[in-house]
Amino acid sequence: MNGYIGIDIGSQNSKGVVIADHSIIAHYTCASGVNHRQTAEKIRAKLLDKTPHIRHIRTAATGCGAKRVAWADDQCSDIQSLARGICFFDNTIRTVVEVGDRFSRVVRLGQGGMVIDFSMNHRCATGAGVFLQVIAKILQLDIGDIGPLSLKSTAAVRFDTGCAVFGETEVITRICEGHRIEDILAGAHHSLAEKIAAMAKGIGLEKKCALAGGGGLNTGLAAAIRKALGIELVIPPRPDIIGALGAAVIAGQKSGHQAKR
Predict the structure, then answer these.
(1) Is there a contact between 164 and 170 (Cβ–Cβ < 8 Å)?
(2) What's the pTM value of the predicted model, to 2 decimals?
(3) Is the bond preceding 152 in cis, omega lying within 30 degrees of 0?
(4) Predicted confidence (pLDDT) per residue in 163-195, tens digit
Protein backbone atom coordinates (compact mmCIF):
# COMPACT_ATOMS: atom_id res chain seq x y z
CA MET A 1 0.00 0.00 0.00
CA ASN A 2 1.35 3.43 -0.96
CA GLY A 3 1.47 6.10 1.73
CA TYR A 4 2.20 9.82 1.88
CA ILE A 5 3.71 11.76 4.77
CA GLY A 6 2.89 15.29 5.86
CA ILE A 7 5.11 17.11 8.37
CA ASP A 8 4.02 20.36 10.05
CA ILE A 9 6.82 22.02 12.02
CA GLY A 10 5.17 24.66 14.20
CA SER A 11 6.65 27.23 16.53
CA GLN A 12 5.77 25.21 19.64
CA ASN A 13 4.37 21.86 18.51
CA SER A 14 5.06 19.75 15.44
CA LYS A 15 2.88 17.11 13.82
CA GLY A 16 3.21 14.28 11.35
CA VAL A 17 0.54 12.36 9.44
CA VAL A 18 0.57 9.36 7.13
CA ILE A 19 -2.30 8.83 4.72
CA ALA A 20 -2.91 5.79 2.55
CA ASP A 21 -5.93 4.34 0.79
CA HIS A 22 -7.88 7.59 1.38
CA SER A 23 -7.48 7.34 5.18
CA ILE A 24 -5.27 8.60 8.01
CA ILE A 25 -3.07 5.62 8.87
CA ALA A 26 -0.91 7.18 11.60
CA HIS A 27 -0.13 10.51 13.24
CA TYR A 28 2.31 11.80 15.82
CA THR A 29 2.72 15.07 17.75
CA CYS A 30 5.61 16.40 19.81
CA ALA A 31 7.15 19.65 21.02
CA SER A 32 9.07 21.47 18.30
CA GLY A 33 12.04 22.27 20.51
CA VAL A 34 14.92 24.41 19.24
CA ASN A 35 16.28 22.03 16.58
CA HIS A 36 13.62 21.62 13.93
CA ARG A 37 15.78 19.28 11.86
CA GLN A 38 16.00 16.81 14.73
CA THR A 39 12.29 17.22 15.46
CA ALA A 40 11.43 16.35 11.86
CA GLU A 41 13.67 13.29 12.01
CA LYS A 42 11.99 12.19 15.24
CA ILE A 43 8.53 12.54 13.69
CA ARG A 44 9.56 10.60 10.59
CA ALA A 45 11.01 7.77 12.69
CA LYS A 46 7.84 7.54 14.79
CA LEU A 47 5.62 7.48 11.71
CA LEU A 48 7.73 4.81 10.01
CA ASP A 49 7.61 2.67 13.17
CA LYS A 50 3.81 2.95 13.17
CA THR A 51 3.44 2.03 9.49
CA PRO A 52 5.95 -0.72 8.63
CA HIS A 53 3.50 -2.16 6.07
CA ILE A 54 3.29 1.10 4.10
CA ARG A 55 5.46 1.97 1.11
CA HIS A 56 6.12 5.65 1.71
CA ILE A 57 6.17 7.40 -1.64
CA ARG A 58 6.50 11.10 -0.96
CA THR A 59 6.74 13.65 1.87
CA ALA A 60 5.62 17.28 2.02
CA ALA A 61 6.51 19.73 4.78
CA THR A 62 4.74 22.85 6.01
CA GLY A 63 4.92 25.24 8.97
CA CYS A 64 7.52 27.75 10.10
CA GLY A 65 10.22 25.06 10.15
CA ALA A 66 9.41 23.44 6.82
CA LYS A 67 12.77 24.43 5.33
CA ARG A 68 14.51 22.39 8.02
CA VAL A 69 12.90 19.19 6.72
CA ALA A 70 15.69 18.72 4.19
CA TRP A 71 14.53 15.28 3.08
CA ALA A 72 10.99 16.39 2.21
CA ASP A 73 10.10 16.20 -1.48
CA ASP A 74 7.87 19.27 -1.33
CA GLN A 75 7.26 22.37 0.78
CA CYS A 76 3.81 23.92 0.95
CA SER A 77 2.34 27.00 2.58
CA ASP A 78 0.41 26.90 5.83
CA ILE A 79 -2.75 28.15 4.14
CA GLN A 80 -2.54 25.65 1.30
CA SER A 81 -1.99 22.81 3.77
CA LEU A 82 -4.87 23.99 5.95
CA ALA A 83 -7.20 24.11 2.96
CA ARG A 84 -6.26 20.65 1.66
CA GLY A 85 -6.39 19.13 5.14
CA ILE A 86 -9.86 20.40 6.02
CA CYS A 87 -11.13 19.38 2.57
CA PHE A 88 -9.83 15.84 3.17
CA PHE A 89 -11.76 15.78 6.43
CA ASP A 90 -14.95 17.26 4.91
CA ASN A 91 -15.06 18.52 1.34
CA THR A 92 -18.24 20.52 1.99
CA ILE A 93 -16.41 22.99 4.30
CA ARG A 94 -16.39 26.48 2.80
CA THR A 95 -14.78 28.50 5.63
CA VAL A 96 -12.08 27.32 8.00
CA VAL A 97 -10.82 29.16 11.08
CA GLU A 98 -7.40 28.15 12.34
CA VAL A 99 -6.09 29.28 15.72
CA GLY A 100 -2.41 28.46 16.07
CA ASP A 101 0.32 29.57 18.45
CA ARG A 102 1.53 32.53 16.41
CA PHE A 103 -1.25 33.19 13.95
CA SER A 104 -4.98 32.96 13.53
CA ARG A 105 -6.38 32.59 10.03
CA VAL A 106 -9.75 32.60 8.36
CA VAL A 107 -9.78 30.97 4.91
CA ARG A 108 -12.66 30.86 2.44
CA LEU A 109 -12.66 27.79 0.25
CA GLY A 110 -14.04 26.61 -3.06
CA GLN A 111 -14.44 23.08 -4.32
CA GLY A 112 -11.50 20.74 -3.87
CA GLY A 113 -9.90 22.88 -1.17
CA MET A 114 -9.20 25.79 -3.53
CA VAL A 115 -8.36 28.96 -1.58
CA ILE A 116 -10.64 31.83 -2.61
CA ASP A 117 -9.61 34.38 0.03
CA PHE A 118 -8.02 34.52 3.46
CA SER A 119 -7.24 36.84 6.35
CA MET A 120 -4.84 36.51 9.25
CA ASN A 121 -3.61 38.48 12.24
CA HIS A 122 -0.29 40.16 11.55
CA ARG A 123 0.28 42.74 14.23
CA CYS A 124 -0.14 41.26 17.66
CA ALA A 125 -0.25 38.01 19.58
CA THR A 126 -3.62 38.87 21.12
CA GLY A 127 -5.04 37.47 17.89
CA ALA A 128 -3.39 34.06 18.34
CA GLY A 129 -3.09 31.19 20.77
CA VAL A 130 0.05 32.48 22.45
CA PHE A 131 -2.10 35.13 24.14
CA LEU A 132 -4.01 32.38 25.94
CA GLN A 133 -0.76 30.67 26.86
CA VAL A 134 0.52 33.85 28.46
CA ILE A 135 -2.68 34.20 30.47
CA ALA A 136 -2.58 30.55 31.54
CA LYS A 137 0.98 31.04 32.78
CA ILE A 138 0.01 34.12 34.79
CA LEU A 139 -2.91 32.25 36.34
CA GLN A 140 -0.70 29.19 36.97
CA LEU A 141 -2.96 26.91 34.96
CA ASP A 142 -2.29 24.14 32.50
CA ILE A 143 -3.24 25.29 29.00
CA GLY A 144 -5.49 22.24 28.65
CA ASP A 145 -7.58 23.31 31.66
CA ILE A 146 -8.48 26.85 30.63
CA GLY A 147 -11.20 25.90 28.14
CA PRO A 148 -13.44 23.92 30.49
CA LEU A 149 -12.80 26.38 33.32
CA SER A 150 -13.84 29.37 31.20
CA LEU A 151 -17.18 27.71 30.46
CA LYS A 152 -18.04 28.12 34.17
CA SER A 153 -17.94 31.90 33.82
CA THR A 154 -21.01 33.93 34.75
CA ALA A 155 -19.59 37.42 34.08
CA ALA A 156 -16.83 37.47 31.49
CA VAL A 157 -14.26 40.23 31.96
CA ARG A 158 -13.84 42.53 28.98
CA PHE A 159 -10.32 43.00 27.61
CA ASP A 160 -9.78 46.45 26.16
CA THR A 161 -6.18 46.15 25.01
CA GLY A 162 -5.09 45.11 21.55
CA CYS A 163 -1.56 44.23 22.63
CA ALA A 164 -0.32 41.01 24.19
CA VAL A 165 2.11 42.84 26.46
CA PHE A 166 -0.59 45.14 27.80
CA GLY A 167 -2.95 42.15 27.90
CA GLU A 168 -0.65 40.53 30.45
CA THR A 169 -0.80 43.69 32.53
CA GLU A 170 -4.57 43.78 32.21
CA VAL A 171 -4.87 40.21 33.50
CA ILE A 172 -2.84 41.10 36.57
CA THR A 173 -5.03 44.16 37.10
CA ARG A 174 -8.19 42.04 36.89
CA ILE A 175 -6.76 39.60 39.43
CA CYS A 176 -6.03 42.48 41.81
CA GLU A 177 -9.59 43.72 41.32
CA GLY A 178 -10.87 40.39 42.57
CA HIS A 179 -12.36 38.98 39.37
CA ARG A 180 -12.80 35.22 39.27
CA ILE A 181 -10.33 33.19 37.22
CA GLU A 182 -13.08 31.69 35.05
CA ASP A 183 -14.39 35.17 34.22
CA ILE A 184 -10.91 36.35 33.23
CA LEU A 185 -10.45 33.31 31.00
CA ALA A 186 -13.86 33.77 29.39
CA GLY A 187 -12.98 37.39 28.68
CA ALA A 188 -9.72 36.37 27.02
CA HIS A 189 -11.52 33.82 24.85
CA HIS A 190 -14.16 36.37 23.86
CA SER A 191 -11.47 38.92 22.99
CA LEU A 192 -9.75 36.46 20.66
CA ALA A 193 -13.07 35.34 19.18
CA GLU A 194 -14.04 38.93 18.37
CA LYS A 195 -10.81 39.43 16.42
CA ILE A 196 -11.47 36.24 14.48
CA ALA A 197 -15.04 37.31 13.73
CA ALA A 198 -13.72 40.62 12.35
CA MET A 199 -11.37 38.73 10.03
CA ALA A 200 -14.21 36.47 8.90
CA LYS A 201 -16.41 39.48 8.17
CA GLY A 202 -13.64 40.96 6.04
CA ILE A 203 -13.47 38.04 3.63
CA GLY A 204 -17.09 36.87 3.84
CA LEU A 205 -18.17 33.99 6.05
CA GLU A 206 -19.70 31.00 4.25
CA LYS A 207 -21.18 27.82 5.70
CA LYS A 208 -20.04 25.16 6.52
CA CYS A 209 -17.43 26.60 8.85
CA ALA A 210 -14.78 24.51 10.59
CA LEU A 211 -12.35 25.21 13.43
CA ALA A 212 -8.81 23.85 13.12
CA GLY A 213 -5.43 24.27 14.77
CA GLY A 214 -4.56 23.79 18.42
CA GLY A 215 -7.29 26.27 19.33
CA GLY A 216 -9.82 23.68 18.23
CA LEU A 217 -8.89 21.63 21.30
CA ASN A 218 -9.97 24.48 23.58
CA THR A 219 -13.69 24.05 24.32
CA GLY A 220 -14.01 27.52 25.81
CA LEU A 221 -12.45 29.18 22.78
CA ALA A 222 -14.61 27.11 20.42
CA ALA A 223 -17.73 28.24 22.27
CA ALA A 224 -16.61 31.89 22.11
CA ILE A 225 -15.87 31.70 18.37
CA ARG A 226 -19.20 29.98 17.74
CA LYS A 227 -20.99 32.81 19.54
CA ALA A 228 -19.00 35.56 17.83
CA LEU A 229 -19.60 34.14 14.36
CA GLY A 230 -23.23 33.28 15.04
CA ILE A 231 -23.03 29.89 13.34
CA GLU A 232 -22.30 26.30 14.26
CA LEU A 233 -18.72 25.09 13.95
CA VAL A 234 -17.51 21.76 12.62
CA ILE A 235 -14.51 20.60 14.67
CA PRO A 236 -12.43 17.64 13.46
CA PRO A 237 -11.54 14.96 16.03
CA ARG A 238 -7.91 16.15 15.87
CA PRO A 239 -8.05 19.79 14.72
CA ASP A 240 -4.38 20.29 15.58
CA ILE A 241 -3.10 17.92 12.85
CA ILE A 242 -5.06 19.40 9.94
CA GLY A 243 -2.00 21.23 8.58
CA ALA A 244 0.10 18.05 8.57
CA LEU A 245 -2.81 16.17 7.04
CA GLY A 246 -3.02 18.74 4.26
CA ALA A 247 0.69 18.41 3.58
CA ALA A 248 0.25 14.65 3.24
CA VAL A 249 -2.61 15.22 0.80
CA ILE A 250 -0.40 17.54 -1.25
CA ALA A 251 2.36 14.92 -1.26
CA GLY A 252 -0.12 12.44 -2.70
CA GLN A 253 -1.31 14.90 -5.32
CA LYS A 254 2.29 15.70 -6.32
CA SER A 255 2.80 11.98 -6.86
CA GLY A 256 -0.09 11.97 -9.29
CA HIS A 257 -2.42 10.10 -6.96
CA GLN A 258 -5.83 11.23 -5.74
CA ALA A 259 -5.03 11.41 -2.03
CA LYS A 260 -8.15 13.18 -0.81
CA ARG A 261 -11.47 11.57 -0.05
Answers:
(1) no
(2) 0.92
(3) no
(4) 666 777 888 998 999 999 999 999 999 989 999
